[in-house]
Every structure is written in structure tokens, then in C-alpha cells.
Amino acid sequence: MVPKIALEEHALCPSLTEYWHPTVADVPAVVRDRLLDALTDFGDRRIASMDRAGVETAVIGIAGPGVQVETDTKRAIAKAKASNDFLAAEVAKKPGRYAGFGHMPMQDATAAADELQRCVEELKFCGAMINGQTLGRYLDDPAYAPFWERAAALKTWIYLHPADPVATMPALEGTYGLKRATWEWGVETGTHALRLVFGGVFDRYPDARLMLGHLGETLPYLLWRFDSRAQLYGVKLPQPPSFYIKRNIAVTTSGMSSAEPLNCALAALGNDRVCFASDHPFEDAGEAGHFLDGVALPEEVRRAVASANAKTLLGLA
């Protein structure tokens, strides 16, 4: 097995389970209990799962939605800080095997910026993981300027993870199998990222860095189309959308153990912009690891995706 660094590995601290339970209310109890058990484990079972996939280091983020659905801003700030302290303590128990993404109280942009800086500078996290929109507000909202200014100054990564939209698309009503992870989350998260691109966030903050799972939520497949339609509709950006996607966005393999989208992402974004992730425990880490070990790739590209890109982009030793 090629040694790997995994960038979308999930966990929960006890104080955040109240936000997670409603998102799995329609999941069979036996599955829900198994997931919760895995999410709250930082011991031998998590390490064993990593070892089965050849993962040397897992960058752990809080499973959604977390405090992003909290309506009390002060409570969201306090619980985000507490969860980050909890995760930092767990990471410190297994240095080298675990690293962390911070959990952000996006209800308050300045508080989120301060917490991001604390996570990066004091807790030594790799950046932050944000679980979609926060109370209906997306990350291109002008109110988030203090957050993006700080993130760009820190040159740290913001991992945009899927979460439920404000409302289900009418086309998905009555089709449960297409909701959430099957299709809905990809549309929601890809659209969220495009709002940042087309809204000029990456033009205003050239050093801002966004990471997407699932090999880019279909964005690599559509670069030409974005540029073509932006020109047609008179989108006022100094550069075509694909420029910002290639410069400011990196992607991971989470939940995508398939050669075709992997090859597309590599061709569209470059061999240095694709990293490994297993999406533990929502996907099987062993399957994700063995896929990357066996998929037809030049060995230097395989090793870049497996760990070298993560070391370079996130500064991981």
C-alpha cells in the first residue's frame, strides 16, 4: 500500500451530537448507532481503519452540521471553541497519526475569523471544515468579508463539506433516493463553491483557499462550460471562472473510488491539486485506500495524490 494522508475524516465530540442526530433520523437505528460509535472513537478502532487503508495521518473534521444550525450566536461560538479544544486534545494523544480541521461559528464572521486564527496558530490545525450554508447564508455573502480576509492572510484551507440546502429542490420531492449524498448534496455544494467563484471572492482574496470533496462536486467536468456561459451572460470577472477554480480550489477523492472522475479531476486541475480522502466512517476507508493503490496511474501521480500534495498544500510533515 502506498502511504496516505486522508483529508476528510469525520468525528464528533459529545457536545455536538445534538446537532447530528436529526440528520440521521431516517437512517436505520443499527446503522445510526454504528456511525455514532465510529465518529466518537479516537482509539484503536479508528487507527485500525486507517491502517487497513494505508493511511498514516488522518486530518479529522467535525461531522456536520455542527454549530452551523445553532440559532444562538453566543452558544455557537462557545460550542465551536469547546469542540476545537476537544479535537486538539485528541490529536495531541496521537501526534503524527491525527491532525485537525477547525469547526467554525459562521453565525459571526469576525468570531469565526478569530477562531480560525486560533485553530491554525495555537492548535496547529490545517485549516477549517465548514458544513455548507449557515442559517441560510452562503460563504459568498458580503458579511463574511472579515472571515475571508483572515483566511487569505493565514493562507489556510477552508474545506467546504456537503450539508442540507435551505430547502429541497422541487425536482427532488418524492424521490428520497436522490436526496442528500446521492445527488442533492453534490448540487448544493458545487453551487456553493461556484457562488464564491462567480461572486468574485477569489478575485478579492487571491490567497483564499477552498477544498472540495468528491473530486470537486462535478466542477472539474464543467470548466469549459463555466467559462463559455460566463462570457455569454456578461459575468464581470477579470479572469474566466476556470482560472479561479484552478488557482484557488483543490479537491479530494472522498466518496469517489472511481477511475473516470479521478482522471478528469487530474486532467482538469493538475496532478498537484488532487488529494486522498476516505470519508470515514460514511465510506469504507479500506475500499478507498485499495482503490488508490490499484487504479491505473503513473506512480509519481499516485504518490502525489496519496500524500505528497497534502504535505505541500497543508504543510503536513
Task: Provide an overview of this structure.
The strands form two sheets. This protein has a six-stranded parallel beta sheet with strand order 4-5-6-7-8-9. Strands 1-2-3 form a three-stranded parallel beta sheet. It has helices spanning 17-20, 29-39, 44-53, 73-93, 109-121, 145-154, 184-198, 201-204, 223-232, 241-248, 259-269, 285-294, 299-314, and strands at 4-11, 55-62, 98-100, 102-103, 127-130, 157-160, 209-212, 249-252, 274-275. The chain is globular, with a radius of gyration of 18 Å. The two termini are 19 Å apart. The mean pLDDT is 96. With 317 residues, it is of the alpha/beta class. It is built from 13 helices and nine strands.
- Major beta sheet summary: 6 strands, parallel
Distance between the termini: 19 Å
Helix fraction bin? 40-55%
Overall number of strands: 9
In one word, what is the shape?
globular
Question: Could you spell the SSE succession in H and E letters?
Answer: EHHHEHEEHEHEHHEHHEHEHH
Count of helical stretches? 13
Specify the structural class.
alpha/beta
Task: Report the portion of residues in β strands.
Answer: 5-15%
**Overall average pLDDT:** 96
Strand order of the largest sheet: 4-5-6-7-8-9
Radius of gyration (CA) equals 18 Å
Flag low-confidence runs: none
Oligomer: single chain
